[in-house]
Hints:
Elements: E1 6-13, E2 17-26, E3 31-37, H1 42-54, E4 58-68, E5 74-78, H2 80-97, H3 105-110, E6 115-119, H4 124-175, H5 177-193, H6 200-213, H7 217-233, H8 243-263, H9 267-287
Parallel strand pairs: 3-4
Antiparallel strand pairs: 1-2, 2-4, 5-6
Helix pairs in contact: 1-4, 4-7, 4-9, 5-6, 7-8, 8-9
Amino acid sequence: MRSMTGYGEKRFSSPGLRAKISIKSLNHRFFDWNYKGTPLGDAENRLRALAQRKLLRGRIEAAVDIDFLDPSSWEIAINEALLEKVLATMEKASRRLGKAVSFTVDNIFRIPQLVEIRRRELTSEAKSFLERAFDETLDELLKERRREGRETARQVRRHLLSIRRSLRRIESMARTQPLFIREKLTQRMKDLNGDRLLGGEKVEGEVAYLAQKADIAEEIVRLRSHIDAFGQWVREGQEEPVGRMLDFLSQEVAREANTINSKSQNISITKESLVIKGEVESIRQHIQNIE
Length: 291
């Protein structure tokens, strides 16, 4: 089980360049790629594909900063026609003033559109180097996501244990619910009719009707099934993306707890169902960050 948040950063060097690569992942419903840093051209798409193979969900913020060490990585383009005009103008100014007018190389570079320094396209070797470096940085990120995922799974299992305890208590009390209903109904009849007792057959019929309405056996079975499935998905060593499944199961558990709460005639069962709902809400907060 993996979290959707994490961070990885590494530095790499080769004979022609140095690179600093950082990858941050945040919570997101889908895979959302964001890149900043040195423009990489089509190499960025290759890095994106690498990330998408290993990270199925999350907002991915990748940055690659490159220092090009090889002078051949750069090319200088001089607008020769413009330079000739500049020099001719300077020569005319020198004759008119009667003294030499000169300027430095720095002045030349300050003249707009006269000199352009641009980086050459990345070589195939440089692209392969960046892909390997990016893949290693992804592995660092994945280690962090797995670590957070293991901690989240541990927290979820703790909440599941509490739910199981409440479910066992509900199941035990549900067996005595018909008797509880009968005693409650009998007492209510006495309160309404004084010492005059109604016929036993009528009371038993009413008890049977109310017991059927309050029967929560099916909800208990479904709730146990959902909890067992939850336990399977958050077991140690789980590597499959489980976030959406856990979100679905938490909704189902909450639905069964609500049904038990609405059907129950026993305040103690109601209290246990509220405990389950509280634990489910805690689980849902944890799993919002799970891939």
